[in-house]
From TrEMBL:
Keywords: Cytoplasm, Ribosome biogenesis. HAMAP family: RimP (MF_01077). The lineage of its organism: Bacteria, Bacillati, Bacillota, Bacilli, Lactobacillales. Coiled coil: none annotated. Its main location: cytoplasm. The keyword Cytoplasm applies. The gene is rimP. This is Ribosome maturation factor RimP.
Length: 157
């Protein structure tokens, strides 16, 4: 049986493609007794609220004509931008983030820390290379991918 998120992804991809947007993330979750279908969309240069509203309406129209079994519970549909500190989940996300400032959380400590922020210099299937600042010094840090719990864009202060 196809999951709710897989079915919604199939429905929304043509809509997004038609507007030159892309799907960053999609979740179907229960919070405080209510179900939420959340889509995070983006495009080069960022997405605005009107564009989110267009996708929300078009997807809502598509969902209304689907078999009720696709989404078995009443839900709230939310379509939004992933924000300035968006998660980086795919190879495409990482490629777009090269030379940008990112936040990396680890499962276990590396060099005494579980969290690093720095400029993403490179990545491959096995590791990320970050340029981090320690006081007034910069250092290249290699982080094994298997140790990474989460990666997101970050705002440098």
């Amino acid at each position: 049986m196809i999951s709710v998120t897989e079915k919604v992804t199939q429905l929304v991809q043509p809509i997004l493609h038609g507007h030159d947007f892309y799907l960053v993330d999609l979740e179907y979750v229960k919070e405080a007794g209510s179900w939420y279908l959340r889509l995070y969309i983006d495009k080069p240069g960022g997405i605005d609220i009107e564009e989110c509203a267009v996708v929300s309406q078009e997807l809502s129209d598509q969902l209304d004509v689907q078999d009720p079994e696709v989404i078995p519970n009443a839900y709230f549909l939310e379509v939004s931008s992933p924000g300035a500190e968006r998660p980086l989940k795919t190879q495409q996300d990482l490629q777009a983030a090269v030379n940008q400032y990112i936040h990396v959380s680890l499962y276990q400590k590396l060099e005494g820390n579980k969290v690093f922020e720095g400029t993403l210099l490179a990545y491959d299937d096995d590791q990320l290379t970050l340029e981090i600042k320690i006081k007034s010094q910069t250092k290249k840090l290699i982080i094994p991918r298997r140790q990474i719990a989460a990666i997101r864009l970050a705002i440098e202060f």
